[in-house]
Amino acid sequence: MFASASKDKTIKLWRINGELITTLKGHQQAVNWVSYSNVCNLIATASDDNTVKIWSKSAQLLYTLTGHKRPVFGLSWSSKGNIIASASLDGTVKIWNQKGELQQTFIAEGEEFTGVTFSPDGQLLAATSEDKVKLWQRDGTFVFG
Hints:
This protein has about 140 residues and is mostly beta strands. It has one domain (about 30-145): 7 Propeller (Methylamine Dehydrogenase, Chain H), CATH 2.130.10. The protein contains no helices and 15 strands. β1 (about 1-5) and β2 form a beta hairpin. It is globular. The mean pLDDT is about 95.
């Protein structure tokens, strides 16, 4: 199974042969990113509506994560699949647990983050903007950027 995000506010789940399984609806604006956790079988979606939504593999909406003040573009599950990072044009990266509870917020004033990723060991977090990369240790210590 794989997922696609759309400007029509939906997420589509597909079989590898291209057959549509189902369409997820719930965002109020364009969906910018989809990230799937193989570990916990959850799907996360990021949207222009400033939210992240967490869905079950069976397409049930589980949680809506709020707190970003501008569109959310980047999502990344940790390698253990128990936490997810979201990156927003509001200059923040937020860390959430798989139950949708906010754990941490990293702030970079004046940045517009469009991507985020964990290092393979989960100890570093990189966020990207148009022409910069910011790097934090998982405990929130700023490394560079």
